[in-house]
Task: structure prediction
Amino acid sequence: MSVVLAGTVRFAPDRLDGARARMAEMMRLSRAEDGCIVYVYSEDLEEPGLIHVFEVWRVQAALEAHHAAEHFLAWRASREELGMSDRRMTAYEVAASRPV
Result:
């Protein structure tokens, strides 16, 4: 069963430039992990500093390995330094999917 994570985080708009490079690094490293299908951070077009997060993992164990990965732990430790706030994430277990 696949796991989808979807949600948002916020950065102070004046600190967003510094966070972009770290988000790009997280996307690159996470996408290289076994079991990662999709890993995306996207800036909201109407709310400066609002970032949409969307991840798809092949199985729960892959997501758990991601959460234990060195780059994820470093990212988590840097949240305050980067000015991240208001993290709102939801995990969904998906039994099947199809194009629409």
